[in-house]
Amino acid sequence: MFQTFDVTARPEQGPDRLAALRAQLETEGYDGFLIPRADAHQGEYVAAHDERLSWLTGFTGSAGFCAALRQVAGVFIDGRYRTQVKEQVADVYTPVPWPEITLGDWLLDHLPEGGTIAYDPWLHAAQEIRDLTTRLDGSGITLVETDNLIDRIWQDQPAPPMQPAVPHPDEIAGESAADKINRLAADLRRAGQAAAVITLPDSIMWLLNLRGSDIPRNPVAHGFAILHADGRVDLFMAAAKLTDLRLDPSVSRHAPETFLDAVARLDGKIAGDIRSLPQAVAKVLGPQLVASGDPCALPKARKNAAEIAGSAAAHERDGAAVAETLAWLDAQTPGTVTEIDVVKTLEGFRAADPSLRDISFETISGTGPHGAVIHYRVTEDTNATLQDGHLLVLDSGGQYLDGTTDITRTIAIGTPGRAEAEAFTRVLQGMIAMSRLRWPEGRTGRELEAIGRLPLWMAGQDFNHGLGHGVGAFLSVHEGPQGLSRLNTVPLEPGMILSNEPGYYREGAFGIRIENLLVVETAPALDTGDADRKMLSWRTLTFAPIDRRLVVPEMLSPGERDWLNSYHAEVYHKIAPRLSASAAKWLDAACAPL
């Protein structure tokens, strides 16, 4: 199996490890040290070598950081992890709701007389350090760079990953590496920039048509790159990862330890994304750095025809694996199946596809109260049995050679309660509203996401995560810069793939989430002929049944009912031919019209 169920959060280890870190603070004369969940490449996901936040605190979420002072240690977490953090950290740590409380404000509150805060400049983006420095200006609190204090005390720290990179076929990528390099180099020339520094692993993989396995669930290899305006690329990656790999002739190989020296030798205006460029790199560039963003970000987000076709095909095969799992689950008696049983069964059906390379994230299989833990990870210690009346939140995905999938279904175990069904129906109404949407070109995720929340808002309910995130093409399941959240200001463009996943979570009771992936397209013309501007719309990529037992039909409008019936008809048409006879029979009933 790809997924394991080992217990990775050990709250009882937190106090001793924090004491060891504080001994380092005492030795160095620092008042605090910042521990982000980040690596030198500044991607969202990190290898075991870089899981410093988890090692220190026990918190295993995919976002957050710790500010460890001599007397207090705050673990900063966003809305997705408010429940999870309570279960994973010892009481020597204080959970801090972030971004409602910023790091700067927290430091000012806890160090009113000033102090010295140390940080590893490779693990913090330039923008983060600029903003924090500005907030602390005049406070007597000073930021200082240091080597990583966690690495000093982590005696059994895993080695950095050294898995080989592999070519990603041009026919699947839809464009050769040479064409991408030349296209982006021309953009640099038009902007008057001599080069761009790239540290995000998925950007480098996309640009050079490579894939890797340095990070579980993400097909990327660690490295750095410099794209020059004349069409040359310097790739800084361990030689062991490039053995027997033929790169485009424009790409030169270099050892990673020579990266900063190469950056220092650059002349002219140098492009970079200060939201992801490590402070260590930005400091070397100095005034040469132009904060124009990662040159790969938008081109990578705008999927070409081959990438969209590959993603659609992957979703149909993945939908069949999900349907087989749901059919199997429906045949089990409540009280006889566990959360881990569901994960293993689903992975088994996915693994029957020879193009599967990994799951796209740890499968979330949470029943009853576990469903309210937004990013719940089942372990041997937490493994719960699915009981009559429970809901099961099943959020999962696959990394296929031709596409990355991410799908969530909430399933009734036995007979659901009325409160659960009504909440489910509101979540479904939000998902349908976004799926049906047409919007004027140029609108951003920030402007659109409330549409998916409206049915919940009308009932005084909401959820503590964004409505949707960007998704890569056999790359990261969370891909920027696009997104459906109140913070995202990137205009949506044709070819972008995003998730549509409203939810509702009642702590200690149940959780609900429904998720499909959608691709942005130019909206078809209306029959009225009155349209006066270009409009965009969604095409659904995900096809698997939505549990009709949890739908309260009288709550749906005629348009919502028609959408659900039409969607289920398409699910059956696309998925049934791929299923076993028993699963196809089950799917016929699951997709029956309301």
Folded structure, characterized:
With 594 residues, the protein is of the alpha+beta class. It has three domains: 11-153, 3-Layer(aba) Sandwich (Creatine Amidinohydrolase, Chain A, domain 1), CATH 3.40.350; 166-297, 3-Layer(aba) Sandwich (Creatine Amidinohydrolase, Chain A, domain 1); 302-584, Creatinase/methionine aminopeptidase superfamily (Creatine Amidinohydrolase), CATH 3.90.230. Helix content is 32%, strand content 20%. It has 19 helices and 28 strands. A six-stranded mixed β-sheet has the order 4-3-2-1-5-6, sandwiched between helices. β22 and β23 form a beta hairpin. The longest helix is centred in the middle third of the chain and has 26 residues, at 305-330. The protein is globular, with a radius of gyration of 24 Å. The two termini are 38 Å apart.
